[in-house]
Amino acid sequence: MSKHIQKLLDKSDITDNLYRYCRCVDRLDPELGYSIWSSNSVADYGDFYQGNGPGVIDLICSQHKQLLTHSHQMSNILLEVQGDTAASESYVTATLRINKNNQIMQMTVWSRYIDSWTKEHGRWLLNKRIAIRDLDEIRPVTPITQKYGGARDSSDPSYAEVWQDPTA
User: Fold this and answer.
1) What CATH number does the domain containing 122 carry?
2) What is the pLDDT of residues 95-119, one digit of tens each?
């Protein structure tokens, strides 16, 4: 296989891990989140969290259980791969809803993740993340509907239709 094709495959694998991270926090699936971090990972989320990768997954999933709903999206993913190491910058938008004093409030946070990756045993794993919060807001909203079609756990329809083995 050519180096160019291998680099494209590596970039695709890393991008899949970034998307798995979003799925993990939106579906409250810590095991999926743990699967993207290396055993000696470092997560630097500023004053929100400093520690290892699994620890930040636990904190985020625990806090998200208190929310009404939430959705995370990744975009503007830039990746540089050099052999078995890589670096990336990705933008993440987190939209979260809470009920505060009988008023639905929507929080939106725009951040960037500066990540370093290592390929171990054929799998790309996240070694270090620096999370940079660029913007945030909270405002009252009026939901269009009170019932949504998804679920924040493995009963979500995506688990029946989209099977992803993070070790594959």
Assistant:
1) 3.10.450.50
2) 999 999 999 999 999 999 999 999 9
